[in-house]
Write a structure and sequence with these properties.
The chain is α+β, with helices and mostly antiparallel strands and 571 residues long. It has 3 domains: 272 residues, Nucleotidyltransferase, domain 5 (2-Layer Sandwich); 106 residues, Substrate Binding Domain Of DNAk, Chain A, domain 1 (Sandwich); 73 residues, Up-down Bundle (Substrate Binding Domain Of Dnak, Chain:A, Domain 2). The chain has 13 helices and 26 strands. The structure holds adenosine monophosphate. Adenosine monophosphate (AMP) binds next to helix 5 and helix 6.
Length: 571
């Protein structure tokens, strides 16, 4: 029997695990349910809790609970939890470990390998962070696949008719849309588009803002973070209720001081609030269709993925604009995990049928001197929607005589204007031959099936790659061993290692405070509401004082508050 590889949908709000069992993809329940909240906490006894138990304590013990960690994957962040600090990868590893052990219990043997899904719009850092999280959880991540791709695979793997599918995936925190062709069991993603910061959580925020503006008296300041969190917890189930009911009533005793919150909202009022956000998703839908060269009439089916895709207004707008009734043949909460299990089965050699051709949703460019000799322009090596794996190379010339070195800059994006792309890395090739300008350098980009990019520069005349230095700008490498020890210690699996050096800890706090300050300053420049601005300035001032006093625990507390504020206010 081939080894079982599990398929994991590591979601912002909920996660799920599946595997090929008895020849077909099946969801493996975790704590008795098909999906598990992606929440990690420390309970009152200092024990790690994952899933529903952690979600239950979210409102009461926010300082001991972490949610939506997926939104921070790829960030060099320290997330405080139960008096310790963890990277986003480590927090995700707690979730993955829980899914892994549910699978082991169900299958009756150890599981060492997994396929994990990510939004199509995850960049290199976020993909690498996801891979690292799997490794920290004790699994080899044999493949990272895009969520809409997995969904299409779940739908298309057993079909024999030829179809063009539109996969509309709106989860808690991210939106992806893909145009996918299914031909005799072969699933090919033709184009993908999306928004990494748009999801059902934003609907909650709009609803919370609406309730708050109706509740607050003229000129009354916004309530504190804890109250706002209570409100968010209140609106989420109400929002889901509006999917099935025409109206909803909110009642919360002693919401603010001795004032009770009491409000009623009709579905059509709610829909007016969220319509602009749904409209935003349609810009991506049209872009994906035009990238794939398809018109609405060419689409055979619309598949809905992600919890928030259940919103009736989304059905209505899709049906209206594309003239097809969206189908929800497979549960939108489970379809991605099922697709991941099918891909896992293919990797494990369990299924002969079902071939996955994936594409890159991003283009990748390198910077060169503009043709007129002035300024810098970006030259795309890998274009977006290129099937993976992709290997593309081109020749570039040195621009001055005896040029000994050249800096190669790697951009995500295809715009000729570097400002419109994002610099994801750069490196130096030096020790080039001392020849006149025009020395030819071959630059190659290799994008693997996990969407991870490797860039190489080669001097053509010598045929050798010369002293290449990769400057992993903005990227942080997680120390896997330390991370494993860190989470194992908390799970009581191993005696905890020596405590982190206090000096290092303080430096990390300082770095985190700096990073947060930069984000806050950028946000303040965009012109936010007066109350929010005051909140942010207060925390920045308090952080400054704590830094001056060398009070690490105060810095940590203020960092946490600021990070929360930014989470709600950014975008
Ligand atoms: P996911 O990330 O796919 O688990 O999706 C989670 C998001 O879907 C959250 O914002 C949920 O509030 C939202 N959601 C779940 N069920 C429903 C529903 N019945 N109606 C509207 N939104 C929902």
């Amino acid at each position: 029997m081939s080894e079982t590889i599990i398929g994991i949908d590591l979601g912002t709000t909920n996660s799920a695990v599946a595997a090929i069992i008895d020849g077909r993809p099946q969801i493996i329940p975790v704590h008795g349910r098909d999906t598990m909240p992606s929440v990690v906490g420390i309970d009152a006894d200092g024990k790690v809790i994952v899933g529903q138990a952690a979600r239950n304590q979210l409102a009461a013990a926010p300082e001991r609970t972490v949610e939506s960690i997926k939104r921070r994957m790829g960030e060099n962040a320290k997330v405080p939890l139960g008096g310790r600090e963890f990277s986003p990868e480590e927090i995700s590893a707690f979730i993955l470990k829980e899914l892994k052990s549910a699978a082991e219990e169900k299958l009756g043997r150890p599981v060492g390998k997994a396929v994990i899904t990510v939004p199509a719009y995850f960049n290199e850092h976020q993909r690498k962070a996801t891979q690292a999280a799997g490794q920290i959880a004790g699994m080899e991540v044999v493949r990272i696949i895009n969520e809409p791709t997995a969904a299409a695979l779940a739908y298309g793997a057993d079909r024999h008719e030829n179809e063009s599918l539109l996969v509309y995936d709106l989860g808690g925190g991210t939106f992806d849309v893909s145009v996918v062709a299914v031909e005799r069991g072969v699933v090919e993603v033709k184009a993908s588009h999306g928004d990494t910061r748009l999801g059902g959580d934003d609907f909650d925020q709009l609803l919370a803002d609406e309730l708050l503006s109706a509740f607050l008296m003229d000129g009354e300041p916004a309530p504190d973070l804890i109250t706002r969190r209570r409100l968010r917890a209140l609106v989420e189930p109400a929002k889901c209720q509006l999917t099935d009911e025409p109206d909803v009533a909110f009642r919360e005793e002693y919401f603010l001081g001795d004032r009770h919150l009491q409000h009623e909202l009709r579905r059509d009022e709610y829909e007016k609030l969220i319509e602009p956000l749904i409209e935003k998703t349609f810009a991506s839908v049209h872009r994906a269709m035009s990238d794939a060269g398809l018109a609405a009439a060419d689409i055979d089916k619309i598949m809905l993925v992600g919890g928030a895709s259940r919103t009736p207004l989304i059905h209505a707008m899709l049906a209206d604009r594309l003239d097809i009734e969206p189908s929800a043949e497979i549960n939108p909460d489970l379809i991605v995990a099922l697709g991941a299990a099918i891909q896992a089965g293919i990797v494990a050699g369990e299924r002969g049928s079902g071939v996955l051709i994936d594409i890159t949703p991003h283009g990748y460019s390198t910077a060169t001197v503009a043709p007129d000799g002035y300024g810098i322009t970006c030259f795309p090596l890998i274009r977006r929607n290129t099937p993976l794996p992709a290997r593309k190379a081109d020749l570039f010339n040195t621009i001055v005589d005896s040029q000994e070195r050249a800096r190669i800059e790697v951009y995500q994006g295809e715009s000729p204007d570097p400002e419109e792309n994002s610099l994801i890395g750069d490196f130096l090739i030096d020790g080039l031959s001392l020849v006149p300008a025009g020395n030819r350098i071959r630059i190659e980009y290799h994008l693997d099936l996990n969407g991870i990019l490797r860039a190489t520069a080669l001097e053509k005349s010598t045929g050798l790659v010369k002293s290449v230095t990769i400057d992993t700008k903005g990227e942080h490498v997680v120390e896997l061993e330390a991370a494993r020890r860190n989470i194992a210690a908390l799970l009581g699996e191993e005696p905890p290692g020596a405590d982190a050096d206090a000096g290092d800890e303080h430096e990390d706090l300082l770095a985190a405070a700096n990073e947060l300050r930069k984000r806050a300053e950028a946000l303040l420049k965009t012109g936010i509401g007066e109350d929010d601005e005051n909140d942010i300035r207060q925390v920045l001032d308090a952080t400054q004082i704590a830094l001056k006093d060398g009070d690490s625990s105060a810095v940590e507390k203020h960092n946490d508050t600021l990070s929360d504020l930014l989470f709600y206010l950014e975008d």
